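The protein record minuted underneath.
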Amino acid sequence: MSDKKLLQTKLEKDVELAQIKLAELKAKIESKAIAVRATDSIHIEVLEQRIEEAKQRLHELNLSQGSVPEQIVKGVEDSWSALQDSLQDAVSTFEGEQ
């Protein structure tokens, strides 16, 4: 399997898992008091933004032909890293509140 296909498959899987976790986190927010929702919503908004950025990078990767330019690979890697960091931050915050 090519490096592009491996990267593409990995990012697709990570985006899908992040969306599942996002749905779980949104459900938790719905059960909380209004006073804490504003703070929690920030984590959700950041995570949603990171997912959209990852989707955009995945789209760019899908559009690339042949060898993938280094700037696209770097963008995908940076986006993936930011998504993972935001996801971990959100999960840690919400799991700490249980």
Notes: DSSP finds three helices and no strands in the chain.
